[in-house]
Design goal:
By secondary structure, this protein is an all-alpha fold. The protein contains five helices and two strands, in the order E-E-H-H-H-H-H. The chain has one domain.
Length: 151
């Protein structure tokens, strides 16, 4: 699926974001899927890190973790879009020199949002641990899927 725009082709701009535009019903899978993944990571992390009052901790943090995770993925995708459309660097959107920095940017944003906002009231060691866990495990690794695999 190619689309001409300003003399260059956009094959895989932002997986899964471009797919979500082409197939809006995928939002019904992506949104709850990310929520389930964030919930599992939070629940397992609470168990491993021996958090007391897990039910209250979960209720207090899950929506922020989920929202900031989605926002971080969008920020990484926006970086790729800027590089492709704004600076005309790359033409398919799945070149490693675009996707790896986007993945790192998203992971860094997940860490920053969780460390400074979501878990800011937890003690420093616990908020560092949670922030690192989420940054590493929930980073948007789907950015690394080559568009050629999809068509």
């Amino acid at each position: 699926m190619s689309r001409k725009s300003n003399g260059f082709k956009l094959y895989n701009l932002l997986f899964p974001f471009w797919m979500l535009m082409l197939l809006p019903q995928l939002w019904l899978i992506v949104l709850p899927g990310n929520f389930i993944i964030d919930s599992l990571v939070l629940l397992v992390s609470m168990f491993i890190l021996k958090v007391e009052n897990k039910k209250l901790w979960y209720k207090k943090h899950i929506l922020k973790v989920y929202t900031f995770g989605m926002l971080s993925d969008i920020i990484g995708a926006a970086y790729m879009l800027l590089m492709i459309a704004g600076f005309k660097i790359g033409n398919m959107g799945d070149e490693p020199y675009l996707t790896i920095p986007a993945l790192i940017i998203s992971a860094a944003m997940i860490f920053v949002f969780n460390y400074f906002v979501t878990f800011k009231r937890a003690d420093k060691k616990l908020r560092l641990q949670f922030s690192l866990i989420f940054a590493i495990i929930t980073a948007p690794y789907t950015f690394l899927i080559p568009s050629a695999w999809l068509y």
